[in-house]
Amino acid sequence: MLGSRAMPERHVIDRMRERDVADVAELDESTRMNEDHLRTELAREWARTWVAREDTSVVGYLLTWHVADELHVMNVATRR
User: Fold this and answer.
1) Closest residue by Cα to residue 75 from 18, 34, 14, 17
2) What domain count does the chain have?
3) Domain of 34, in residue numbers
4) What are the two backbone dihedrals, phi and then psi, of residue 38, each rounded to the nearest 5 degrees?
5) Of 32, 35, 44, 48, which residue is most buried, by most CB within 10 angstroms?
6) Which long-range contacts (CB under 8 A, 24 or more apart) does 63-72 make?
7) Residue 46 has pLDDT above 60, yes or no
8) How many CA atoms lie within 13 A of 47 on its CB side?
């Protein structure tokens, strides 16, 4: 147990949307996923993309491909 005080719930996992593209591209400089690449992934039927938010800021994202009965992790990035 971490203590008697409850930790505030500020983190939310949500599907990535077009409005998140610029924030995610900024997070993901290390793999060079730019806004065009992210928009391409959003348009793919088999791609699954999620963002992690802290309050209203994007602090992470996950890109996966759903292929047959498998989920392939293609990319993960977090804020430093």
Assistant:
1) 34
2) 1
3) 11-78
4) -65, -40
5) 48
6) 63/33
7) yes
8) 18
Stated length of the chain: 80
The band of 23, judged by pLDDT with boundaries at 50, 70 and 90, is very high
Residue type, 3: G
C-beta atoms surrounding 43 within 10 Å: 9
Q: pTM of the full predicted structure?
A: 0.80
78 vs 14: CA distance, rounded Å: 14
- Per-residue burial over 21-31, b if 16 or more Cβ lie within 10 Å, else e, is bebbbebbeee
Q: 62-68: long-range contacts (C-beta < 8 A, 24 or more apart)?
A: 63/33
Task: Let me know if residue 72 belongs to a domain.
Answer: yes
5 located within any domain: no
Dihedral (Cα; 7, 49, 23, 40), 10-degree rounding: 180
